[in-house]
Write a structure and sequence with these properties.
Layout lengths: L2 H26 L9 H14 L16 H11 L11 H20 L14 H10 L6 H17 L2 H11 L1 E3 L2 E2 L1 H9 L8 H10 L3 H6 L4 H13 L7
Antiparallel strand pairs: 1-2
EC number: 2.4.99.28
Family: Belongs to the glycosyltransferase 51 family.
Function: Peptidoglycan polymerase that catalyzes glycan chain elongation from lipid-linked precursors.
């Protein structure tokens, strides 16, 4: 075996070791609640650097201690096919791709200096995979790793456990993570007591929580909240 072959073998073994390590971490999540995510740690460092202190709100709650209204709202807003897909919603990916191509074509016609906004098709499982283990880089290798982690999450954890971890670690504002912290921060109540309108409002914030935290009176936030609230009764929970 030549030098190139040895390097390729070492690379392959390193990739395999990484996947086994991640699979082991995910398996442990069946019995151990993850303490923090890669995204949370990067956010904590950023806040410390910019503010010189770390205002942080997070309080883990079992899924049974979180209002089912919030679970329904998040699924309705973020991933309508959550209970049915195997981690990656290919129909949503295709639709997002088509929207992005149309947006890029319109931008090209207008000769815009900045690129068109990219619309994603990430499922709850994909978002959790990214937040748990990955950086914010956007490249093919990172997307491939995200897909692998997503499939491992779906293979080793139940849908309800994936949702539970997601709801406890997703960002809901500057230093605000998880359903309990969000409910107390915005409504001064525990997550168990969230009503349908409150839950819908929190769910709508998820794509850009820091922006909506600063603009609570946003017309989009109010309009989208009503839409999500109307969809919630039809949502199936895992």
């Amino acid at each position: 075996m030549g030098i190139l072959g040895r390097w390729l073998l070492l690379l392959g073994l390193a990739v395999l070791a990484l996947q086994l390590y991640l699979a082991g971490r995910i398996l442990l999540m069946n019995v151990l609640d993850p303490g923090s995510t890669t995204f949370q740690r990067s956010e904590a460092l950023r806040i410390l650097r910019t503010q010189g202190q770390l205002p942080w709100r997070q309080d883990w709650q079992d899924l049974s201690a979180i209002s089912p209204q919030l679970a329904r709202a998040v699924i309705a807003s973020e991933d309508a096919g959550f209970v049915d897909h195997s981690g990656i919603d290919w129909d949503a990916v295709d639709k997002a791709w088509e929207r992005n191509e149309k947006a890029e074509a319109r931008a090209a016609k207008r000769a815009q200096a900045k690129p068109a906004k990219v619309v994603g098709g990430s499922t709850i499982s994909q978002q959790l995979a990214k937040n748990l283990f990955l950086s914010g880089e956007r490249n093919l290798a990172r997307k491939a790793q995200e897909a692998l982690i997503t499939l491992e999450l779906e293979l080793f954890l139940s849908k309800s456990r994936i949702l539970e971890i997601y709801l406890n670690h997703v960002e809901w504002g500057e230093g605000v993570f998880g359903a309990e912290a969000a409910a107390r921060h915005y409504f001064r109540i525990p997550a168990k007591q969230l009503g349908s309108a409150q839950a819908a409002r929190l769910a709508v914030m998820l794509p850009a929580p820091k922006r909506f935290e600063k603009r609570p009176g946003s017309p989009y936030l109010s309009g989208r909240t009503a839409t999500i609230q109307a969809r919630m009764p039809a949502v199936e929970l895992p």
